[in-house]
Amino acid sequence: MKKKQLKNFRVWFDNYVAGFYDDDKFVNANLKLKEEHSKRTCQEMRYLTRQLGLTDEQKRLAEAIALLHDIGRFKQFVEYRTYSDFKSVNHCLLGLDVLRSEKILEGLDDSERQIIEKAIEYHGLKELPGDLDGQCLLFSKLIRDADKLDIFYVVIEYYRRYRENPKEFMLELEFSDEPTYSPELVDELMHERRVDYSKLQTLNDMRLLQLGWVYDVNFTATLRRIKQRRFLEEIIDF
User: Fold this and answer.
1) Rounded to the nearest 5°, which phi and psi values hold at 21?
2) Is 91 within 8 Å of 32 (Cβ atoms)?
3) Structure letter (DSSP) for residue 196
4) How many domains would you assign to the chain?
5) What is the pLDDT of residues 4-62, one digit of tens each?
6) How far apart are alpha carbons 5 and 10 in whole angstroms?
7) Do residues 143 and 69 touch, judged by C-beta distance below 8 A?
8) Distance CA 47, CA 42 (A)
9) What is the pLDDT of residues 92-114, one digit of tens each?
10) Domain encompassing residue 206
């Protein structure tokens, strides 16, 4: 991928996202959450690609994936007022529909376009398909790790803001805040298995799922970042 192509993606992203904001404070707060998440995921991706010693072309391709990986989230929230795929639509597939309708990937080589599309399609799956290999596998792993690194930050800020002022909390609260948890989810974690999202019932269950993300980390550099920032300890402390 050329420098100009990545620059064009950034300009398009800003213009596309800006078109969703309106006078609804609840919608705007949630759109801003995803806009900022997408840009911070780019920062995490730059960190990972440096640590792995990738080429400049690979770095730009990886950053484009990071920028666009959640592009379906904006249309999803405006139409359904939720980021829950279970309550609305698959945001990964919706994102592919957006990219194709906007024809934003048409100037790329077929191989680059396919890598971007597959990485976006697979980044939200519980686990990657077993038949991936080569560059597609590499970039699919990269976006899952970069995404997680920023989502750890996002959820910690989310919990902090909610605890400080729950009545004025403007973001979506998907699960009930009760002093309970599902014992079967603890069992999943103790056996180093990833928690199934469909089994979540409370905010504490969500925290258990987030702790289990460490079982789906692909690179040592990602684990190093998680440890340095004390993400797991922060989630437990809430």
Assistant:
1) -75, 140
2) no
3) P
4) 1
5) 999 999 999 999 999 999 999 999 999 999 999 999 999 999 999 999 999 999 999 99
6) 9
7) yes
8) 9
9) 999 999 999 999 999 999 999 99
10) 3-237
